[in-house]
Amino acid sequence: MKLNLEKYADVLIWGLTTARTQKFKKxxxxxxxxxxxxxxxAEIVYARLVGMGFNVIPRAGITPAMEKGFYSLSDDRQxxxxxxxxxxxxxxxxxxxxxxxxxxxxxxAGIDPKRIGKAAVAQKYLRDILDKREELxxxxxxxxxxxxxxxxxxxxxxxxxxxxxxxxxxxLNDKDPVASWKGVYNEVTQIKKRxxxxxxxxxxxxxxxxxxxxxxGEMRKWIGxxxxxxxxxxxxxxxxxxxxxxxxxADQPSYxxxxxxxxxxxEFKGGRAVKIDAVEGAEFARKQxxxxxxxxxxxxxxxxxxxxxxxxxxxxxxxxxxxxxxKSGNCHIAxxxxxxxxxxxxxxxxxxEKKAILGFNDSALHWDLVNTEKKRVTAKLKNGKSIxxxxxxxFII
Length: 397
Hints:
Layout lengths: L4 H15 L9 E6 L4 H13 L3 E6 L3 H10 L2 H4 L6 H6 L3 E6 L12 H10 L1 H12 L4 E6 L3 H6 L4 H11 L7 H20 L3 E8 L3 E4 L8 E2 L9 E4 L7 E6 L3 E3 L2 E3 L2 E6 L2 E6 L4 H7 L9 E7 L13 H4 L8 E7 L15 H7 L7 E6 L3 E7 L4 E6 L2 E2 L2
Parallel strand pairs: 1-2, 1-3, 3-4
Antiparallel strand pairs: 5-6, 5-17, 6-9, 7-8, 8-14, 9-12, 10-11, 12-13, 14-15, 15-16, 17-18, 18-19
Helix pairs in contact: 1-2
C-alpha cells in the first residue's frame, strides 16, 4: 500500500493554518523540516507552500550515523554550540512543518543520556523563541509521520500494515480527508466546552496500575485537535505541576533519543517524580528526568477518546501512540515542558514569572508517556461534588 501524498499534503496544510490564531499571509516564512525517507512527501508539501506565496526554508535531518557521531565525538563546546543565524531565523518564522521518518530508532542506545540532555538544554532557547511567537499569534506548527521499514519492524508490523495504519488514522482513505478532520474538530470542540465549564480542584486517574492526582490549577483550559499534530485526537491541558501526587504507569513502550523504555513507573510526591522504575531502560529514564529542574515535573495531562481515534496498534512512535484509540482509549502525561496555549487568558501576557506562579512547568524535556489500560478519570469539583468525566476509553460528560 502507498500513501496518497497529495491528500497527506492537504491535511498538513489544513493543520498548519488551523493551528495559527492569526491568518497567514503571502511572504510568511515557513520552515519545512524532513527526515530523508520522507523526501517524496517533502517535495509535494514544498510545492504547495511555495504556490501559496510563502517563503519556504527546507531543511533535511541528519542521518542516524551523523547523529551518533555528533553525540559520540563532540566535546562540551560542540554539544552546546549555537548555530549562527538560527536565532535570527527563528525570530522570523511564521510556521513550521516537520515530517518524521526515522531510519533508526536505537542508534543512540550506547550514548550517555547526559550528553543528549546537555545538547537539548543548550538548544532550548530556540523553542522558547517559537513559544513566544505562538503566544503572539505569529507562528504555528504541525507534523506528521512517514512510514519506514525501521518503524514497521519495531512495531512488529509489515510495512504495508504500518502504512495502512497511517492512512486510516489520518483519514487519507476518505474522499475528502480535510472535511473528515473538520468534522472531528467540531465534535471535540463541544467536549472541550463542557470540560472547560467545570470548576475543578483535581482529577483522579485510576487504572490497574495508575492511582494519580492531577491538579489543573488556575486559569487553565482543555485544548486539542488544533491542527498541531497529524493525526491528533487527544484533549489535554498543562496542569499546575505542584499538585501532582501518586503513581503513574506507562504500559506503552517509548522510543526516545535512540533508547527503548518499557514499563516505566513514576511515583510523584510534592509535584515531582521521586521514584523512577522501568522494566527496561530505567537508567536512561532516570537521566532524562534529571535533565534539568523541570524534567521531573508534569507539563501535560491528556486523554484520547476511542470514538475518534482509529489507531489500534502500537506504532513505535509517540505521535501515534499518544493518540491510541483501541478498546480503552488512552491517557498520557508528559514530564517536562508545559504548553502556554492551555492558559485561559491571553497567552501573550503570560510572563515567565506568572507561569511560575501558576505552575506551568519549564524544561528542555517534553516526554509523553502513554497508558492504554481501562481506566476511570474523576473530577473533584470546587463545590465538593465529584463527577466521572472519562471511562472505558470515552468521555462521558
